[in-house]
Amino acid sequence: MTENPSTTATEDDIPEQLKVRHAKRADMLAEGAKPYPLGVKRTTTLKRLREEYGHLEAEASTGVIASVTGRVIFVRTGGKLCFATIREGDGTQLQLMLSLAKVGEESLGEWKRLIDIGDVVAVTGEVITSKRGELSVMADEWEMAAKALRPLPVAHKPMSEETRVRQRYVDLIMRPEARDTARNRAAVVHTLRDIMHQRDFMEVETPVLQAIASGANARPFTTHFNAINMDVYLRIALELYLKRCVVGGIDRVFEISRNFRNEGADSTHSPEFSMMEAYEAYGDYRSIGRLTRDLVVGCAESVFGSTTVTHADGTELEFGGEWREVTLFGALSEALGEPVSIETPYDRLVAFAEKTDLEVNPVWGPGKLAEELFEHLVTDTLVNPTFVLDYPEETSPLTAAHRDTPGLTEKWDLYVRGVELATGYSELIDPVVQRERFEQQARLAAKGDDEAMKLDEDFLRAMEYGMPPTGGMGMGIDRLLMALTGLGIRETILFPFVKPE
């Protein structure tokens, strides 16, 4: 049989260890034992035992018989007394003790012969404490719950990031930080839903497969719908369907979902990612900004117990208090040392780009170039939570025109640690202007912009029935975890896409 050696041990060790473990599995089957039973006895959890009996002094006997399960992470085989440590999925550990007097010679011998680090076992026995005061289960009997055919990585040799991502299941076994990140993500999503439900937002589900990929400036993934012989797209955003809900009278609506963008992957981008979008009738970008702040602060408080969070590198970030606000052109002017605005000529912006070593894509208009200059010069300086307000109309085709400044829209982007976390709009609700914006996007697509939005006739038809003034926002769940923990996006996503080995 051909094996694929693990990258976490040497090539010389791995094949031999695999052979030994496969041989033990074969021995169990030959002897009528079950290396992978359909069920084992389990009456409590390790965490519950620690909560109930963790206060006991040394050499205490409870008289309580418990059946526990866990993965073996340490074994010490002596003569008449063996010790082991098992761990449950939540990270709780407990000591096992197996004595000749309790389990008998045959069972103790099988333990010594068959058990390896990484095996999952079930043990029944009395809850006691050892001479050193360690809470333990003194086994009366044991059985294999799952024989591990691959050895775990050596504890003192950290796994590489690539291995952690490819083999997240091993990462979860070995590193408490990986388990904490998975739990924190679940808690963040739970908190977001709780806050939205408390504020009377309705959660809905919208299509993943779409005939038209729109709602964001992004390149879509394409697939083929065999039943109707038609190419369709994986959604790049939730916006247009959620706005249909607002037209239909669902005044407060949100969705948390997976989206897909056929773009590059780096420390802040993943082609498959999670997003939350929310729309509030009779709101605007200011009201939806307040909601977004409350959501982020609520997640920090409920998950981490404070508005001050400590990142993986030990630095702290404060989410409490009022968040800073800047305008895009105001911040860009400060960075350039010269005033620029939506009226600054294109040639002048090109000169700024050349001066600051920004390569200019010929399909960019002045608004897009100004935004690229901002991202090139300013975003890395936005460490603390900062709302960047008032974006060019050219780059915001679904956003309402600014009520005071022609050429701008009522849009903000929220930045934390130099990364865009969320975006919010006063939504464009005029169907005639929306059609004009879509047509402008079509002209950009004809010039070679493969991220330009597509015209969606059904969405325009929905808007023609009348959409009330609305504030909308979209926030990346993965990036929210990044902002709260300081981790890269591949660490906050449990199973990010990786190239096949």
TrEMBL record:
It is found in: Cytoplasm. It catalyses: tRNA(Lys) + L-lysine + ATP = L-lysyl-tRNA(Lys) + AMP + diphosphate. Mg(2+) 2 binds at E420. Residues 185-500 form the Aminoacyl-transfer RNA synthetases class-II family profile domain. InterPro entries: Aa-tRNA-synt_II, aa-tRNA-synth_II, aa-tRNA-synth_II/BPL/LPL, Lys-tRNA-ligase_II, Lys-tRNA-ligase_II_N, Lys-tRNA-synth_II_C, NA-bd_OB-fold, NA-bd_OB_tRNA. GO terms for biological process: lysyl-tRNA aminoacylation. Homodimer. This is Lysine--tRNA ligase. It comes from Stackebrandtia nassauensis (strain DSM 44728 / CIP 108903 / NRRL B-16338 / NBRC 102104 / LLR-40K-21). The gene is lysS.
